[in-house]
Amino acid sequence: MIIEIPGVGVGNLPAALTTFVGRGRALAEVRHRLGTTRLLTLTGAGGVGKTRLALEVAAASATDFTDGVWLVDLAPVRDPTSVANAMATALGVPDLGTRPVIDQLAAFLTRRGPLIVLDNCEHLVNACAELAHGLLSACPGLRILTTSRQALGIYGEHVFAVPPLAPDAAVELLRDRTTAVRPEFRITDDNRAQVRKLCDDLDCLPLAIELAASRLRTLTLDEALNRLEDRFGLLANGSRVAQPHQRTLRGLIDWSHELCTPAERLLWRRLSVFAYDFGLDAAEAVCVGDGIERGEVLDLLDRLVVQSVVLPCEQAGLARYRLLETIRRYGRERLAESGEEQRVRRRHHAFYLGLAEGIADGWYGPGQLESLTRMRAEYANLRVALDLGGEPQATLALAAALRFYWCEGGWLGEGRRWLDQALAAAPEPTPARARALWVAAWVAVLQRDHEAAYGWLDEAAELGEELTDRVVCAHVKSLRGTLALFGGRLADAVSLLEEAVASHKGTDEEIGAVYALILLATAQSHLGDPRTTQTCREAVTLAEAHDERLVRAHAQWTLGYDAWMRGDLKEAALMIRTALENERGFTNYLRVALMVEQLAWVTAASTEYRYAGRLLGAARALWQDTDTPISTFGPHMVDQHAQCEEVIVRALGPATYEELLTEGGSHRCPDEAIAYALRSEPVPTALVPVLSPLTRREQEVAALVAKGMSNRQIASTLGRSPRTVDGHVENILAKFGFCARAQIASWWTANQEIRS
Questions:
Q1: Degrees (nearest 5) of the Cα angle 53, 59, 65?
Q2: Rounded to an integer, what distance in angstroms lies between the CA atom of residue 587 and that of residue 420?
Q3: Distance between CA atoms of residues 59 and 183, nearest Å
Q4: pTM check: above 0.70
Q5: pLDDT tens per residue across span 235-253
C-alpha cells in the first residue's frame, strides 16, 4: 500500500493493522543507532519481531528522510539476481536500459537520501550484501535498515540483536491479541500465573504469542497450556538439533496446523504457492478442487484470518491477503509432501496468464490505470508464474502477454530478460513465439538496442507471414517505421508507417493504428508535410472512439508538437498540457519527460524564459533517472533541445539558466513533474514581444520568409549570397528555439499584428 508520509511525501510503508506492544526501549535504541550509521541490521530468531520493529522504526523516522522511507520485502524473492529488481520495483525506479539494475538504482539514488528497509534477507545474504555495499558506496545520502537471521557481514554494518519480548510486554501482547478475538478475556489475579507461564513456554516470541492468542478464542488457558506441553515434548524428542526458539515456533505452528479442519489445512498449503499477497479471485481460481469448492474459499479464508494464519492487507488500494513468511514456508513444505505441488503451480500460472492476456486484450480502452495498478500489485506472483519450469511455451505466452507491463509500467530491462530467456527456451514456430518476437522488438526499440530489434523483427515478419497472423505483421511494419524515425530516416519512416496504419486497420485490432498514426505525424511534421495536422486529428479521433486514455494523451501531445511546428504556440501549449493531464498516475518517465521537454520549447518560443528553464530542469531530472538521453528519440530532438537552451541562455545568461535547471530538477517523479508543469502559468497568447531580438537584416529575412519565399529567392531579392541567407535563417530559428520556417512566418505575422 502506498501511503503519504506527513512532511516528506511518498513512501510505501504498509499501514499497521495491530497495535505495537512493548519494544519502547528497543525502538529508541534502533532509532539512535540509525542516526549514527548508514547500514543497520536487525538480527534474531524467526518470529522474534524483526520486521515489525523495523517498520515501526521506519515510520517513526519518516520526518528525518526528505526522500521518504521505503520497504523492500525480499520474502518472495528466490533468485539472488532478482534482489536489485525487487528494490527497483518497491521504489518505483524505472528499469528501462540495458545496464545492470544496480547501476540504474545507483543513478536514481545518487541525488536522493531515503531510508530503505531491506526485509527478510537471510536466504539472500550475499546478494543483499553486494547490493547494499554498491548502493551505499555510490549514494552518500542513502541509509539502509535490514532484517535478517544473520548479519550481512560487510564493512560499516552495525548489528542490533532483537531479543524476545520482556515478560511484562509478552503478557500485554497476549492480552491485546486475545481480546481482539475474545473481547471478554481479562487478566486477573486468578489467571495471571497461567498467562505468565504460557508466555514463558512460548519463549516470549511475538509470533508464537499471536498464534496462541488466536487459539484462546475457543480454548481455556489450562487447555492451551496442556496441549502445548504435549506438543513441545514430542518436538524436543524429534528435533534435538533445533535451537530452543526454533523448536518453540515449529511446535506451535504444527499445533496450529493440527487444530485446523481438513479443508483449512488444504487451503493453507495451497495458498503457499503465492509469492506474497493475493486477491480473493486468485485464491478462488488456484486453490479450488479436490476438497474445496469455489464458494467455500472466502469462508475458509476468514477462518484462517481468525486463527492468524492468513493476514488481511491492502496493496495499492486493493483488498488482499497474505501469509507471514514463516507460515508460508511451513505450508509450502506441506504442499510438497502432498504430491500436488506441480498441479497447484500450473493453476497459479494459468490464472496469471489469463489475467495478463485479459489486460493486454482490453488495454485500448477505459480502465488502463486500474489495470497497470493491478499488475504492479501482482509483480511477485507474476515472477513466480514466469518461473514455471518445464513448460517453455507457457512462459513465452506470459512474457508476451505482459507487454504493457514491460513497456508502459517501466520494466523494460526485466521484460527483456524474460523475453530473451523464453525465446531461447521455446524456438518452435508457434503463434506464441510470433507474438513474443514483436514484443521483444518493441522492448529493444525502447531500450535503444536497434540491432537486436531488427533481428527480432526479421524473424517475426517471416513467422507472421507463415502463420498468416495479420496483427503480428502490422506490428512489425509499425516498429520498422519507429526505428526509421528514431534513426533520423524521416522519409523512410513516413513510407513504413503509412503501410503500418493500413495494415492495422485491416485487423481486428484497429486501435493499433493509433501509435503508427502518432509516429507518422511526427515524421511528417519534421518534413513539413501539410498532412501532419490531419494525421494527428485522425489519431485523436480513433483514440477517443475507444475511450482510450494513454494513446489519446500521446496523440494530443503529437498534435501539440504539430501546432508548435506551425508556430501556433497557444494551441501547442493547450494540447501538451491536456496530454500531461491524461498522463497523471501512469508514472511513465520517458513520455512525461518528452512532454515536459516539448512544453519548455513552446514556453521559450513565447519568451517565458524562466519558466522554460525550470521545465527543462524537470525534464532533465527524468532523463537522468531513466539513464536515457534525448537522442534516443532521434537527432532532431537533440537539435531542438539545443536551440531551446541557446535561446534561454542568450536571454538570461548561463548562471541563471543553471539555477533554473536546479530548481526544476527538484520535481523528480513523473507526477511531480506534471503537477509542476501544469501549475498556473501564462498560456502563450502571442508568438514574441514587440521588441524583437532580431537584427534589422534578420527582420528583413523573416518578412520575406513570411511571404513564402525560399532562401534562394530571398538571396536574389536582397542581393545577398544564398549561404548568407541560410545563415540568417539559422540565426532566427536559434534565437526563438524554432525548428521550422513556418514558425518564423507565424511569428512575423503576430509581431506585425502587435505593432499595428
A1: 125
A2: 25
A3: 29
A4: yes
A5: 444 444 445 555 667 777 8
